[in-house]
Amino acid sequence: MKRIAVLTSGGDAPGMNAAIRAVLNQGMHHGLEVYGVYHGFQGLVEGDLRLLTVNDVHHQIKLGGTLLHSARYPEFKERKNQERAIEQLKKQKIDGLIVIGGDGSFQGALSLTKLGFPAIGIPGTIDNDIPGTEYTIGFDSAVTVALDAIDKISDTAASHERTFVIEVMGRHAGDIAIWAGVAAGADAIIIPEESFDMEQVAYTVRAGRRSGKDYSLIILAEGAMAVDEFVAEFKEHVPEQSVRGVALSHIQRGGAPTARDRVFATSMGAKAVDLLLEGQAGVYLGINEERVSIFDIVETLEKNEHKVREDLYKLNLELTDRDL
């Protein structure tokens, strides 16, 4: 191999830039030219590829987002667009591709590999919803941002003896809600993977107040229910309480990546280059017991079984289980 390329796809995640930087530096270490694909798979199909230099990436490790920009491009599922992408890569004499993104991005990487062009995946998504790996790039940063916001809201909640329902990201995965909720000492954590009883949530909040708490926090994953809808229904069960809802929304995507995300991203970016040079493709890198590990993309996509930390979810239930 003499040239490789790297792209980011789907939602941006803090730490993507650290991975891009590692790909470039490791590629240069091995004497490779590294091209950046701008605007994800759409940019790949349109031929928006540029040679990266150290100056492009050296200050990016501390920045959130992605310097290569990102775009959702469902049209890449079409065979003609996949073939067009390979034409663009071959036109630039590129021998391998590293794709940073979520499960949809991995589908794109796998489709290229099946057509004979080697691609390696790196999991970059704040939702932490890729089966196999324990962590995805951006998750730790998103939880840290969410927790900081929740802590600030709790100050106001305590001042007014109020209940706050705080919606965090997680359309199909409750990982951010669970980790931020446990860290914040939430009275209840609502996630799409687990059913909930509003009557029981109200009971838990009331029990907390009667045991001496001056405010209450409910952490709600967006995929379970919209915050306004939740607040309206919750108020019917606790008409005596002052209740407010807050959606943290996209602030969880931005900001400087944590040390954990920077280290994981750097490790996976460098390892992805090594794997391409070893002739591997159709795999992705993840974290297992704090170490970078290799996972099969096909097996991951076929399983499509994301599992949240049930032990943390149950722990929160135990810690908030009080008698009225």
TrEMBL record:
Keyword line: Allosteric enzyme, ATP-binding, Cytoplasm, Glycolysis, Kinase, Magnesium, Metal-binding, Nucleotide-binding, Transferase
Which EC numbers does the record give? 2.7.1.11
User: Known Gene3D superfamilies for this protein?
Assistant: 3.40.50.450, Phosphofructokinase domain
Its cofactor is: Mg(2+)
**Mind telling me which InterPro entries this protein's record contains?**
ATP_PFK, ATP_PFK_prok-type, PFKA_ATP_prok, Phosphofructokinase_CS, Phosphofructokinase_dom, PKF_sf
Q: Where does ATP bind?
A: G11, R72, Y73, G102, D103, G104, S105
The residues that the entry says bind substrate are T125, I126, D127, R162, M169, G170, R171, E222, R244, H250, I251, Q252, R253
- Its catalytic activity? beta-D-fructose 6-phosphate + ATP = beta-D-fructose 1,6-bisphosphate + ADP + H(+)
Identify a single GO molecular function assigned to this protein.
Answer: identical protein binding
Q: Where is the active site?
A: D127
Q: What class of enzyme is it?
A: transferase
Pathway linked to the protein: Carbohydrate degradation; glycolysis; D-glyceraldehyde 3-phosphate and glycerone phosphate from D-glucose: step 3/4
Q: What is its main location?
A: cytoplasm
HAMAP family xrefs:
Phosphofructokinase_I_B1
- Family note: Belongs to the phosphofructokinase type A (PFKA) family. ATP-dependent PFK group I subfamily. Prokaryotic clade 'B1' sub-subfamily.
UniProt-listed PANTHER family: ATP-DEPENDENT 6-PHOSPHOFRUCTOKINASE, PHOSPHOFRUCTOKINASE
NCBIfam families named in the record? PFKA_ATP (TIGR02482), PRK03202.1 (NF002872)
Per its database record, what is this protein's job?
Answer: Catalyzes the phosphorylation of D-fructose 6-phosphate to fructose 1,6-bisphosphate by ATP, the first committing step of glycolysis.
What interactions and quaternary structure are annotated? Homotetramer.
- Protein name, UniProt field: ATP-dependent 6-phosphofructokinase
